[in-house]
């Protein structure tokens, strides 16, 4: 069983762990065979958390268990994990086969078993025709597949991926994401995948751990995190373009923004200062001329869709439209309307979601 249990884990640097804290009491339970993506901006602590699971960083407090075994004091080589890094770290003088087999040779695995495992991994990753090549003869995507193959042959309880797609171009990243999804579907090994790219997180994860400043903001499926963000940070980080966050004052069915009173499709959850979140794709351009006035500043054509950037009662606002629709003219004003279930409310002080 490759389950992972992270219980109140924290990390501090400095003498005797009394320096600045970078991880603040994280709790997470990861089921056997689950694919979890840890996502957040640079410096939020996601790679540090992964490295603590791997044993490459000591934890300051708390407990980490892999397959029901507490591993706080267990060496990385004894945790039954395999890690894929952003840097491929392949031996340039070795063939693809030898790079994939090297760890097994060091562990004194019989040659026949090494051949079986390497051939199996090469078949999964479509590397069979490349086994005799050197890394310099491979593309970036092929090198990353070799790095994943080196992890697969270990047959570990847990795979750990530390931003493995960052060095690839956009097309290769998309292709490799598909390969990783297929790989997990075939092997079913518990996987932790770290990325700062929310598109990677949304497309790969069965569940996501969204981190910010060393804390967990939300854990949930991509659908839940997108549809019901727990905080303004999650709302502004997940989604491309991100959710529009409007800070104003609610009273009944009126929301005052920049001194302008806007009529809501339903009564606000409470009166007072609130943050209203609106996804760019959920606006309805009012056919009858009624609605919230969006002043159009700039249009972006993105093929299947078009982004309209402008101002709503003085606040920056982005609208997403189908690319086949006739766009509004730059400098014009268009009325926007909303369905009640597309309104997201957050506390103006804490940023925490307010359920309605």
Give an overview of the whole structure.
There is one protein chain. The chain has eight helices and 21 strands. Helix 2 crosses helix 3. The chain folds into two domains: 230 residues, Rossmann fold (3-Layer(aba) Sandwich), CATH 3.40.50; 113 residues, OB fold (Dihydrolipoamide Acetyltransferase, E2P). The strands form four sheets. The chain has a six-stranded mixed sheet, sandwiched between helices. A six-stranded antiparallel sheet has the order 13-12-11-14-20-21. With 356 residues, it is an alpha+beta fold.
Give me a quick take on this structure.
The protein is an alpha+beta fold. The protein has helices spanning 46-54, 96-106, 111-124, 140-152, 170-187, 198-204, 222-227, 232-237; strands at 4-12, 21-30, 35-39, 61-66, 69-70, 81-84, 158-162, 190-195, 207-212, 215-220, 244-251, 254-257, 260-263, 272-278, 284-285, 292-301, 305-312, 315-322, 333-337, 344-347, 353-354.
What's the helix and strand layout?
Elements: E1 4-12, E2 21-30, E3 35-39, H1 46-54, E4 61-66, E5 69-70, E6 81-84, H2 96-106, H3 111-124, H4 140-152, E7 158-162, H5 170-187, E8 190-195, H6 198-204, E9 207-212, E10 215-220, H7 222-227, H8 232-237, E11 244-251, E12 254-257, E13 260-263, E14 272-278, E15 284-285, E16 292-301, E17 305-312, E18 315-322, E19 333-337, E20 344-347, E21 353-354
Parallel strand pairs: 3-8, 3-9, 6-7, 7-8
Antiparallel strand pairs: 1-2, 1-4, 4-5, 9-10, 11-12, 11-14, 12-13, 14-20, 15-19, 16-17, 16-19, 17-18, 20-21
Helix pairs in contact: 2-3, 2-4, 3-4
């Amino acid at each position: 069983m490759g389950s992972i249990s992270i219980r109140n884990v924290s990390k501090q640097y400095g003498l005797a762990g009394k320096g600045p804290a970078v991880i603040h009491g994280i709790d997470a339970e990861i089921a056997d065979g689950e694919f979890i993506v840890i996502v957040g901006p640079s410096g939020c602590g996601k790679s540090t958390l992964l490295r603590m699971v791997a044993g490459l960083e000591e934890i300051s407090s708390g407990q980490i268990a892999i397959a029901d075994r507490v591993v706080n004091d267990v060496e990385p080589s004894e945790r039954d994990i395999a890690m894929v890094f952003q840097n491929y770290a392949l031996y340039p003088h070795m063939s693809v086969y030898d790079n994939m087999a090297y760890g097994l040779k060091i562990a004194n695995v019989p040659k026949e078993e090494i051949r079986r495992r390497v051939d199996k991994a090469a078949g999964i990753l479509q590397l069979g025709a490349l086994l005799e090549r050197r890394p310099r003869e491979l593309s970036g995507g092929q090198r990353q597949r070799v790095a994943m193959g080196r992890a697969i042959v270990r047959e570990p309880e847990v795979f750990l991926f530390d931003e493995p797609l960052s060095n690839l171009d956009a097309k290769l990243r998309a292709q490799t994401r598909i390969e990783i999804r297929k790989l997990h579907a075939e092997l079913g090994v518990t996987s932790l995948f770290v990325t700062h790219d929310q598109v990677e997180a949304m497309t790969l994860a069965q569940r996501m751990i969204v981190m910010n400043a060393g804390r967990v903001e939300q854990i949930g499926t991509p659908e839940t995190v997108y549809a019901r963000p727990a905080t303004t940070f999650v709302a502004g980080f997940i989604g491309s373009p991100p959710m529009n966050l409007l800070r104003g004052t609610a009273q009944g069915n009126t929301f005052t923004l920049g001194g302008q009173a806007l009529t809501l499709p339903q009564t606000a959850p409470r009166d007072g200062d609130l943050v209203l979140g609106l996804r760019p794709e959920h606006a309805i351009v009012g056919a009858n001329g009624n609605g919230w006035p969006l002043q159009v500043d700039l249009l972006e054509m993105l093929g299947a869709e078009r982004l309209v950037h402008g101002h709503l009662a003085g606040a920056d606002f982005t609208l997403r439209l189908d690319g086949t629709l006739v766009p509004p003219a730059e400098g014009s004003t268009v009325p926007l309307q909303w369905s009640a279930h597309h309104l997201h409310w957050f506390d103006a002080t804490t940023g925490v979601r307010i359920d309605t």
